[in-house]
Design goal:
The structure is a homodimer.
Chain A: H1 3-15, H2 26-34, H3 38-45, E1 50-51, H4 52-58, H5 64-76, E2 80-84, E3 92-96, H6 98-123
Antiparallel strand pairs in A: 1-3, 2-3
Helix pairs in contact in A: 3-6
The structure holds a DNA duplex (30 and 30 nucleotides).
DNA sequence: TTACGAAACGTAAGTACCTACATAAATGTT
DNA sequence: AACATTTATGTAGGTACTTACGTTTCGTAA
């Protein structure tokens, strides 16, 4: 790749992200927002401000570690605001930034649609042509 | 868990999914749609019908294996239609089902917003308080 | 007759994710 | 003087995701 092409890539990336390009920063942002816990954190924070433990209780199945990590990613991207009261024992409140609220709208829309269309989706559900190494996704439904 | 509770869970799940519940099937659907390649596959298929290789060229960085796997998941959930012409060499076309088109709308909306807001997002970008095991997500931007 | 094409499948190896558990810190309580 | 509280961090280890590479099929081109 020539320097000119590289520069053009930079410009393209800055002007308007292109998630189809492997090196575009938008890929990372997309990953943060659509990560396993990222979606759920955003969806919950869209309903208000929460403390760490409250957030964790709200989202079934997150470990402390993953929640902390996810929150840091979202904070790093400017979607989540973290307010530390500097007290001991620690008190920290999480909420969405204006940017985060806009992003959350899309995620809430998606999640809400899935929840509503779940019946239809499960009806159309097929065993999926076998690929041998079929990764069972999430938990194998302990229920 | 008692049989009654199990039945109640089934009813809850069928009536309306709840992604905040760890065992709800909607979690799996959400994961498929928001998986690393799932989002991109849906976004591309929202623009038309593609053959396997064309889809792969369109989405930068997917391996054959991952694309095939992702397509099978989405087909299993009823979002993607697979048309096999049974020829040799193989010819297979992928497109969205009506259900898939609805889902894709939300994903395209999200992706489009990210691409457009990327400048603003990168501006607000902070190094993210260190958590030592900071997973660099995707590639560290080789460009 | 040999090489090529297109869409997977199989296996092995690498990497990243995720969980579980132990640790820290200042104050108020027992 | 011990102890519980709350939000993390560090480490170790398992699990799942990804990639790389080889294999299959069989008409068509060389």
């Amino acid at each position: 790749m020539t320097p000119a092409q590289s520069a053009q890539n930079m410009l393209d990336a800055m002007a308007r992200g292109n998630v189809l390009a492997p090196d575009c920063p938008s890929r990372a942002v997309l990953q943060h927002l659509t990560s396993r816990w990222g979606v759920l954190v955003m969806a919950v924070l869209a309903t208000g401000t929460y403390r760490f433990a409250a957030l964790r209780r709200k989202i079934g199945g997150v470990s402390e570690r993953m929640l902390a990590q996810t929150l840091q990613q979202l904070e790093g991207d400017g979607f989540v605001h973290r307010k530390d009261y500097g007290e001991v024992p620690p008190r920290v409140e999480y909420s969405l930034t204006p940017l985060g609220e806009t992003a959350a709208q899309h995620l809430v829309g998606l999640v809400g649609w899935i929840e509503g269309a779940l019946g239809e989706i499960l009806s159309a559900h097929q065993p999926a042509r076998d690929l041998s190494a079929s990764p069972d996704q999430t938990a194998p439904a302990s229920a």
